[in-house]
Design goal:
Elements lengths: L2 H4 L5 H8 L3 H8 L7 H14 L5 H8 L4 E6 L3 H4 L3 H16 L3 E6 L3 H12 L5 E5 L7 H4 L5 E4 L12 E5 L1 H14 L5 E4 L6 H13 L8 E2 L5 H14 L5 E4 L2 H13 L9 E6 L2 H4 L7 E4 L2 H22 L12 E3 L2 E3 L5
Parallel strand pairs: 1-2, 1-3, 3-4, 4-5, 5-11, 6-7, 6-8, 8-9, 9-10
Antiparallel strand pairs: 10-12
Helix pairs in contact: 2-3, 2-4, 3-4, 7-15, 10-11, 12-13
């Protein structure tokens, strides 16, 4: 055992002695309290650095009522989360923002009703300062289970009354879908089909509405339900070709769905874009640029959405602390809807 490993950890009392201040003053500086003159603050900070003092998190929480930890709740099974690059991008944005504010990310996944109850109990137990929740489905019980926990949602809430008072970050799903379909129509395509996402999620519903805004008189046979996965895209594309072999364009609800559709079109001998033009949604580069041909898609800034979710939560928590509010997000920070852009590649 080395000499360094046997040395006791520096205490707050040692920091106070080195800085020449009282323990109470050192505690206020270390825990972010106010009311300490700047020269004393600098002396305490210098003592902390010289001694290598690390605050005791449990003791610090008693003072600040903060745990410096945020739960990220994804309402999907782990097989979906770790296979879909959408979640990796959003988690990267969240992680960057939390790291910049010295806050830890606690990842919680839900696959069944037992998981919902477990997550609800964990959040209610006060282990984290707040929650970031995304990929909710319309029948998901999570919003009711986490009532009273400061929360920001990824995506427009779809449960009854969910949009009132809930803080969320989303993209312009409906507007992006309209732009994609208008582009296909502008290419002279007259039989435009749509493969939806999972219709128990608001993003899929909004994109379907955007498709219908442009294709007002679309044949219902040109709409097939998918689930945001490549397998769902393959299944829906086969259905569409069997029902409407003369279709000449497809707007897919996301890039993974479009990738599945491209595979089926290739199997059926349909050239893209000559016979069938294809557009996706998300612009996930590992998918769009490796597609054959490279995929035209609607871009949403997924990583930035994650950052904004974390930023809204942390700002609300800071206001809550400064105003002495016990629960919720003080000041009701506004929800954010980010714009989308069409990215043209070879598929349309």
């Amino acid at each position: 055992m080395t000499e360094q490993s046997t040395q006791p950890r520096p205490t707050l009392e040692a920091v106070a002695a080195r800085a020449g201040v009282s323990r109470a003053t050192a505690s206020r500086v270390v825990n972010g309290g106010e009311g300490v003159r700047e020269p004393l603050v600098e002396r305490v900070r210098r003592a902390v650095e010289e001694l290598g003092y690390v605050p005791n998190q449990a003791a610090r929480s008693l003072v600040t009522r903060r745990h410096d930890a945020v739960a990220v709740v994804i309402a999907e099974p782990e097989t979906r989360v770790f296979a879909d690059p959408f979640f990796a991008l959003q988690l990267r944005g969240i992680s960057k923002e939390l790291t910049a504010h010295d806050s830890q990310l606690v990842l919680l996944l839900t696959e069944g009703r037992d998981d919902h109850a477990r997550v609800g109990r964990y959040l209610a137990g006060g282990h984290v300062d707040g929650a970031l929740v995304f990929s909710l489905h319309l029948d998901d019980p999570l919003p009711g289970l986490i009532h009273g926990v400061p929360t920001v949602y990824g995506g427009r809430p779809g449960w009854v009354g969910g949009s009132r008072g809930a803080v969320y970050v989303d993209c312009d799903n409906r507007g992006g879908a309209r732009e994609a379909v208008r582009h296909l129509v502008g290419l002279g395509r007259g039989r435009v089909a749509h493969i939806t996402g999972a219709l128990d999620q608001t993003s899929a519903v909004d994109r379907l509405d955007g498709f219908r805004d442009v294709m007002v008189d679309a044949d219902p046979k040109l709409i097939a339900e998918g689930d945001f996965t490549p397998a769902g895209g393959e299944r829906a594309m086969r259905e569409l070709l069997d029902r409407c072999p003369d279709l000449d364009a497809v707007f897919a609800a996301n890039d993974l769905t479009a990738a599945g559709a491209l595979r089926v079109l290739r199997e059926r001998g349909r050239r893209v874009p000559e016979d069938v033009a294809v557009i996706g949604f998300d612009d996930m580069l590992p998918v769009t640029e490796s597609a054959d041909p490279p995929l035209t898609t609607v871009r949403q800034d997924i990583e930035e959405m994650g950052r904004l979710m974390a930023r809204l939560l942390l700002r609300g928590l800071d206001r809550t602390a400064s105003e002495g509010t016990s629960v919720g997000l003080a000041g009701a920070p506004s929800s954010v809807v980010l714009p989308t852009t069409l990215v043209r590649r070879a598929s349309a």
